[in-house]
Design brief:
By secondary structure, the chain is mainly alpha-helical. The chain has 13 helices and no strands.
Length: about 270
């Protein structure tokens, strides 16, 4: 077994994927705690569709995918917040409008641009081979920034998660911190899409927190346990993917699903 593990990490692309995956798992679990507890987890799914459409447009037009997609998804998250503030359109409708529009735009642009071969499946379902050294550097820098901002603004994040109305009443700028969280979530979705794909990245944000909720009783412990479970599921998923020749993204998701089911069983019988 040890020999197989050493052989596994002799491949540079697996080392890149392992490091990037750990970083993304940590950030996704932290941000997911806020989204799930506020019942806004579907925002991550909508933004992943926007990220897919923006990436296809970037590749078709010859732009750098990450540098183009991250600002587009951040703008989309801001638009979702703005549309959600309008009384005649709810959050679900706002997410559906932007995600469907972005997907349609990406597909149309891909069909119109001739001479450009884009592997759409690798962006829909993820590809461990897609993570380059450039992507890894951007992922690590973004992880440090996200983690630092989360720690610095922890009190405000906790307040708007617990009760946004009360947070606003005590002077916290809820719109500002909602925008910050949406932007951070956008960044991690774009980065994670390279490995898990647009259709699966939202699970990395949702599953760990759902499992942690059933094992903890406070916001802080939920966030910590969520990060731990996310890391464990990622490691299990990438090892199982390598040894059994399975799709990496899907295997990581199934590992999170198994963890969630075990937490449900534990919570029921404890």
């Amino acid at each position: 077994m040890l020999t197989n593990i050493i052989e596994m990490f002799s491949y540079a692309f697996i080392v890149r994927a392992f490091i990037a995956g750990l970083a993304i798992s940590i950030c996704a679990a932290l941000l997911g705690t806020n989204l799930v507890l506020r019942k806004q987890s579907m925002i991550s799914d909508g933004l992943s569709h926007v990220a897919f459409g923006a990436t296809i447009v970037a590749l078709a037009l010859g732009f750098a995918p990450l540098e183009f997609t991250i600002p587009v998804v951040i703008i989309a998250s801001y638009l979702i917040l703005q549309i959600n503030n309008r009384r005649n359109i709810n959050a679900d409708a706002a997410i559906a409008i932007l995600s469907a529009s972005a997907l349609a735009t990406g597909i149309i642009v891909n069909s119109l641009i001739k001479g450009v071969n884009i592997d759409i499946n690798s962006y829909l379902f993820g590809s461990i081979l897609a993570i380059s050294t450039h992507d890894l550097v951007i992922t690590l820098v973004a992880t440090v920034i996200i983690f630092a901002l989360y720690i610095i603004f922890y009190r405000q994040i906790f307040a708007i998660t617990l009760d946004e109305t009360f947070a606003k009443a005590i002077g916290i700028k809820t719109k500002l911190y909602n925008a910050i969280l949406a932007a951070l979530c956008s960044v991690i979705i774009v980065l994670g899409m390279r490995m898990l794909g647009a259709l699966l990245i939202s699970s990395l944000i949702i599953f760990p927190c759902l499992s942690a909720i059933r094992l903890t009783h406070s916001f802080k412990t939920t966030a910590v346990v969520s990060v731990i479970l996310s890391i464990v599921c990622f490691i299990f998923g990438i090892f199982a993917s390598y040894f059994y020749n399975l799709p990496t993204g899907a295997t990581i998701v199934i590992a999170n699903l198994i963890c969630f089911l075990l937490s449900v069983i534990y919570n029921k019988f404890r």
